[in-house]
Design a protein that fits this description.
Blueprint: E1 5-8, E2 11-14, H1 27-36, H2 47-54, H3 63-71, H4 93-104, H5 110-126, H6 141-155, H7 168-177, E3 186-190, H8 195-208, E4 213-216, E5 228-230, E6 233-234, H9 237-257, H10 264-278, E7 283-287, E8 302-307, H11 315-318, H12 322-329, E9 338-341, H13 346-358, E10 362-365, E11 371-378, E12 381-387, E13 392-398, H14 403-419, H15 432-440, E14 449-452, E15 456-459, H16 465-478, E16 483-488, H17 496-503, E17 509-512, H18 523-534, E18 539-541, H19 545-558, E19 565-570, H20 573-584
Parallel strand pairs: 3-7, 3-8, 4-7, 8-9, 9-10, 15-19, 16-17, 16-19, 17-18
Antiparallel strand pairs: 1-2, 4-5, 5-6, 11-12, 12-13, 14-15
Helix pairs in contact: 2-3, 3-5, 4-5, 6-9, 7-9, 7-10, 8-14, 8-15, 9-10, 12-13, 16-17, 17-18
């Protein structure tokens, strides 16, 4: 029997997921057919039409939904009653609603109009996105157990700091999965600091413009499920477990064929790309794990490459100068892409611009084509005026602290403008009210996050000297504490002395501690470095994080002037995540 033909009671039927030549449609097209527009797919479709839809599976994402909607037609020429149900029991007025939205968007780019219409109808069925950014532990004991088992299995693989610089394993996994990462357009983010916050802002903007998004960031603050988000919310523990078991047989196939097994990060990356294709999403926002050229995420064709500020970090793997690090991070720049370049050290900028020229990429530079026009400290954040590539956007409230967050916002706005073709194909600006609404909704757990008052306790995941410097400036500007106590727990591969030197002017005293990670620097070793910077009288050692938090709060309360004391917990994402959990529990 020919592929795709089912001799059933209704006669020969065409499998909508197989082409006329018997080839399975790409993963993203299948996912789109299954989830986005099932009411456009009765039992049979013209073979020729499906074959046409399958042509050019590597085409950028926005064109795929347009072809599917406009080219796929039912086998039957009979027009059903517009108010009756289809074969799936779904009212045909949902199809009418889709057409109505497209018609209303006729003054816009047709590809974007169809994308947004599909997303809005899908959202209408699925409900509004959830805003919780750090999920609680699963309430169901069975789900919690299943999630723990998955984490234990993943922990047997190479950790995130043990690398073999190659994308061969992740490429092999993508191949056996059907190249899910090519089912949607992507925005790829690299840099040293600000990647996660920028990713969250980009995600919020795309969501506000009615696009379904997938976001992949690392590391997580509290729950591993945070790393993979759909429509602004981490996937559920149940979905995380299901996704892992869905791809596990393919992971084992690749493990058996490669010199080294897939690493922890490579498996998570495969899970993210598969989950995004299955959702399906209109756009993926992907943060690299480390570097760029050989990072596991670098199997996507990012139409927009975002490079946040580069400084010294992971110098044993990426290079000892900003220029050397930029060479690795510039590997995310793809042929013909648009590059959004945050302010960079001169030597790093030179390397990145050369990479862009070699890739025939278009470059937008902060301070030239876009940037921060003005900013003012406000209650709960700051008020911004940003200049994008399409125009100026004023009256933006960003509920995050610090000049660095304002610059992240400018980068995120430019990236979304580039994604929509603003400043290039379309000489127009984005809807300003939508931009304002998006930025006002942004959260970034563990980044200048206030988790307690009296005394105020702030969490920030700064873990290198450049990050510590901007955090110190942001704390001084936003809070003006009369007395600030630091709680610092760091990893053993970081420039801890540089971090301490950045915080020395603002910390009255520092409590050194360690988190539960095997990579944590022992508290006594950390204390020895702290004494070099602060002197023995300003350093207290508390190996347990809960004791360190209690000691810091006590120090702040004992000598506070008119209640103006505070505590800053910093040094590592893991330290911040564990402190957040302890403080949220009271």
């Amino acid at each position: 029997m020919p592929p795709g033909v089912d001799e059933g009671v209704r006669g020969p039927q065409v499998d909508p997921y197989v082409t006329a030549g018997g080839r399975l449609l790409p993963a993203g097209v299948r996912a789109g057919l299954r989830h986005s527009f099932p009411y456009l797919l009765p039992q049979g479709l013209h073979n020729e039409t499906v074959a046409e839809a399958a042509e050019g599976p590597e085409t950028a994402g926005p064109k795929v939904p347009r072809v599917l909607v406009r080219r796929l037609v039912p086998v039957s020429e009979q027009q059903p009653d517009s108010h009756g149900p289809d074969d799936l029991g779904r009212p045909f007025d949902q199809t009418d609603e889709f057409d109505r939205i497209v018609a209303e968007e006729s003054d816009r780019d047709p590809d974007l109009a169809v994308i947004e219409a599909g997303s809005r109808t899908l959202r209408a069925h699925g409900g509004a996105p959830q805003g919780e950014q750090v999920p609680a532990a699963p309430a169901d004991p069975e789900v919690a157990k299943a999630l723990q088992e998955v984490e234990q299995e993943l922990s047997t693989r190479w950790g995130e700091t043990k690398l073999e610089p190659s994308v061969s394993r992740i490429a092999a996994l993508m191949d056996v999965l059907g190249e899910p990462q090519r089912a949607y357009p992507s925005i790829h983010i690299t840099g040293t600091n600000g990647k996660t916050s920028t990713a969250r802002m980009i995600e919020a903007l795309l969501n506000a413009f009615d696009l379904r998004t997938g976001r992949y960031t690392s590391p997580h603050v509290q729950s591993i499920t945070e790393r993979i988000s759909l429509d602004g919310a981490p996937i559920s523990a149940e979905r995380f477990v299901e996704t892992y078991h869905d791809i596990k047989p393919y992971v084992e196939m690749v493990d058996a064929s490669e010199e080294y097994r897939l690493s922890f990060f490579e498996v998570l990356t495969g899970m993210a790309y598969a989950a995004f294709a299955d959702a399906p999403v209109d756009a993926a926002v992907v943060e690299v794990g480390m570097g760029g050229s050989w990072d596991a995420t670098n199997v996507i064709d990012g139409a927009v490459a975002v490079i946040t500020p580069i400084s010294l970090d992971h110098t044993d793997r990426l290079g000892s100068t900003p220029a050397e690090i930029a060479h690795e991070k510039g590997g995310v720049i793809k042929q013909g892409a648009t590059v959004i370049l945050a302010q960079q050290p001169v030597d790093a900028a030179q390397v990145l611009l050369k990479k862009a020229v070699e890739a025939d990429a278009t470059v937008a530079r902060e301070g030239m084509e876009f940037g921060v026009v003005s900013r003012e400290v406000a209650v709960g954040g700051q008020m911004l005026t940003l200049r994008g590539m399409g125009g100026e956007y004023d009256g933006i409230f960003l509920p995050l602290y610090g000049a660095h967050m304002a610059h992240n916002a400018a980068v995120a706005l430019a990236a979304v403008e580039a994604f929509f073709g603003v400043g290039g194909e379309h000489a127009r600006e984005l809807d300003a009210d939508t931009v304002r609404r998006a930025f006002a909704s942004v959260t970034s757990p563990g980044r200048m996050e206030v988790v307690r008052r009296s005394p105020t306790v702030v969490l920030d995941a700064a873990h290198n000297p450049a990050g510590a410097q901007v955090t110190a400036e942001a704390v001084t500007e936003a809070f003006g504490f009369s007395r600030l106590i630091g709680v610092v727990g760091a990893s053993d591969d970081k420039d801890v002395k540089g971090v301490f030197e950045a915080f020395e002017p603002i910390f009255a005293e520092v409590v050194v501690t360690q988190n539960s990670s095997h990579r944590a620097m022992p508290a006594d070793e950390l204390a020895a470095i702290a004494v070099e910077v602060f002197g023995p009288d300003r350093v207290q050692v508390e190996p347990r994080l809960d004791d360190a938090l209690e000691a810091a709060v006590t120090l702040a309360e004992e000598e506070a002037e008119y209640g103006g004391a505070g505590v800053l917990v910093t040094g590592s994402v893991i330290t911040v995540g564990e402190a957040r959990l302890l403080l949220k529990r009271g």
